[in-house]
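User: Good morning. I'm curious how WTA would be positioned relative to this chain. Could you predict the structure with it bound?
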Amino acid sequence: MQEKKIKDFNSYKKEYERSVKFPEKFWEEKANNFLWKKKWDKVLSWDFTKPDVKWFIGGQLNITENCLDRHLEKRGSQIAIKWISNNTDEPNRDLSYSQLHKEVCKFSNVLKKNGAKKGDRICLYMPMVPELAIAVLACARIGAIHSVVFAGFSAKSLSDRINDANCNILITADGAFRGDKITPLKHISDEAMQNTPSIDKCIVLKSTNSDINIKSGRDVWWKDEMEKVDKNCTAETMDSEDPLFILYTSGSTGKPKGIVHSIAGYMVYTEFSFRNVFQYNEGDVYWCTADIGWITGHSYIVYGPLLSGATTIMFEGVPTYPDAGRFWKIVEENKVNIFYTAPTAIRSLEAKGMEFVTPYDLSSLKVLGTVGEPINEDAWHWYDKEIGNENCPIVDTWWQTETGGIMISNLAGVTPSKPSFATLPLPGIQACLIDENGKELEGNSVEGKLCIEFPWPSMARTIYGDHNRFRETYFSAFKNKYFTGDGALRDENGMYKITGRVDDVLIVSGHNLGTAEIESAMDEYENVCETAIVSFPHAIKGNGVYAFVICHEEAGNPDVLRKEINDLVTKIVGPIAKADKIQFVSGLPKTRSGKIMRRILRKIASGDSENLGDTSTLLDPSVVEEIKLGSL
Ligand code: WTA
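Assistant: Good morning! Here's the predicted structure, ligand included:
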């Protein structure tokens, strides 16, 4: 039995108030709608100073019984996953709830047969094919912790993540189609596995029919293994607070953070937010264009929709292949009702022109969504007019890997929307703004750092293996508050607009990149002595990466050098971290204590070098003049 959705602005207000006054009662009601092996003894205990947050304490469950088993009777033959392939000549695949259940059970047995046990960490490095969702759910079914690594990451990034979590199994594929290219996943995995002593087994899915090496004793084929196992698998009994998954995200310092989410709270919140934000109705066809390698794919391709018994589309390809009409063709062919994508995709498709939109019938659309970065007003209006026919509410959903689910967003057609505003927090989310001096800003028409002052069920519990870093990063800036790293303003009506990161994380095409991560990759280049990375406004990507680089020796051909530096970044981090602009400089603006003044570099990179503010604290102000002259 599912709870009723919030249906009008007044009931939103009432629900919000209730969620603040009686949070435990509020969330207990939501949790009651799920299948539990044993109900909880206590709803919540929390202490943000440690931090230590627990929800539904003492409860026992398995999230896959809630995603799959409990739907079998009512909607066993309904499509759970509708898969659309990258290649237009390859047939799509539909998996009903009962087929998905069967595949998950079988693959759970494959995992067990290959040595997986409850609590083990299993790494997934896969294309956007149904088997990725199957593998995710199979891990959850046997109580193993999945760690999905986006298939665009390099061998080094993959091995770092495998080693950080000590994974014993890697699940990958021969390759991944991406537009007209193939990413050789198994080759990259082979390179990664040269440095991952913890990996015992590698399960390989045939997806692109590429030539690969199989190391006997370690590598096994997905298909062969599936033929050897039973189709029944009892779901492991898990505690509410057992970890469900680890997902890496970039931080201000070099090493990515393994964000850990636990089972019960994540389950309750992703289902609640999915149904209410998108106003999902039974039978709707829902499509989120994200990759399961990111949090949006975890929460709103796999868990949220399946927990709600929805039909979720999984698309293997890219928006511009074979041409820029691909998204709209898919919407037409599949009569998509709810469409959720990133502002970068919207801007890049807008730039391709209306000839890629007009041929398609988009009348099935009822709700549009965006996520991952601020959406500018122009893009918002284009999306509204050209895609939504001014007839579909747009939900601008602000949230993070760490928050597990959507935190601030309008509810489609239920609460008001405002272009470029994420608007109001969801029930249960107590957002606040903090000023320069750490004081909470009361009232409306204020701007500050965005924090959350009360726990919500799907919040991250720790950074894998580094609880200190978890506390330092999120709970030490402001006492008793979770600090998001974002700045925001609250308008005269209490609506939130996210203004962007206030730390050293860059949001490029909706992906998080740490400045330190790119800097240290560039510093690996022989001739590079020091690097400073900042972002600059980019018409399509939201932000671009601008690198200021000091070389040891005079560079020969600067363009060759730029390419070689970017090739190295691709190799160490992945292609998403490449710099759009590389400027060679002889020095960087540093304070007397040696800290790079990024504020100045950001201004120069944005083409706004006239108003650099106070530069008197710089060790050598003359370097600024040189950088200004050479700016790109
Ligand atoms: C940014 C993605 C403005 C923000 C779900 C946040 C947004 C970071 C929005 C998290 C939005 C996400 N408007 N900014 N609607 N959604 N962001 O962890 O800076 O990949 O902190 O999670 O993306 O990125 P992450």
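DSSP finds 19 helices and 30 strands in the chain. The chain has a mean pLDDT of 96.
Let me know if you'd like a different ligand tried.
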